Amino acid sequence: MTITPAQPPGPHRPPSGQADFDAHVRAMTAWHFDDRTGSPFWLARRAQLGFDPLTDVTGAADLVRFPDVSRELRTTPAADLIPRGAAPGQVFRVYESGGTTGAPKRIVDGAYRSRMGVWTRQRLTDHGVPETGDWLHLGPTGPHVVAFDTSRYAEPAGGLCYTVDLDPRWVKRLLGSGRQQEADDYIDHLLDQAREILLSQPVRVLSTTPPLIEAICARPDLYELVASRIEAVIWAGTSFSPESLRLVQEDFFPTARLVGIYGNSLMGVAPQRVRTPEDTHPCVFEPFAETTRLDLVDEDGRQVGYGERGRVRVNLVSEEMFLPNVLERDTAVRVRPSSDGGVDGLAEVASVATYEDADVVEGVY
Question: What pTM value is reported for the model?
Answer without folding.
Answer: 0.90
